[in-house]
Amino acid sequence: MAYTLRAAAAATGLNKTTVLRAIKSGRISGVKNELGKWRIEPAEFHRIYSLWFSVSKQLSAVCWRARAITAGAGVPSGMLFVRSDAEGVSHAPEEATGADAVAAAVGVLEAALRELAA
Q1: What phi, psi does 31 have (nearest 5°)?
Q2: Are 102 and 2 in contact (CB under 8 A)?
Q3: Which pLDDT does position 51 carry in this prediction?
């Protein structure tokens, strides 16, 4: 599933303007769909932009406690957070996550596993 500008930006910690500039400069390719929304293939996008910045930024900001516990035990670990479209509602029946956010999370996980396997 292709990224939107928002999903691509979220996957790396970049902003949408930076992603759009990369498309317009030819650094990455993107196409507009019939609604005029940009679509970017995750595999190509992640060859250029690393996901580690986003993952480490999220870990530092949100999971300091879990990271400290596992790091203290000598266990390499990470956590993946997926944005909720329900205005911040989490761990409740009202929680909703759109396809773009799920695609971004899958891209982050895929890139992390590829990096660890290399």
Answers
A1: -130, 150
A2: no
A3: 56
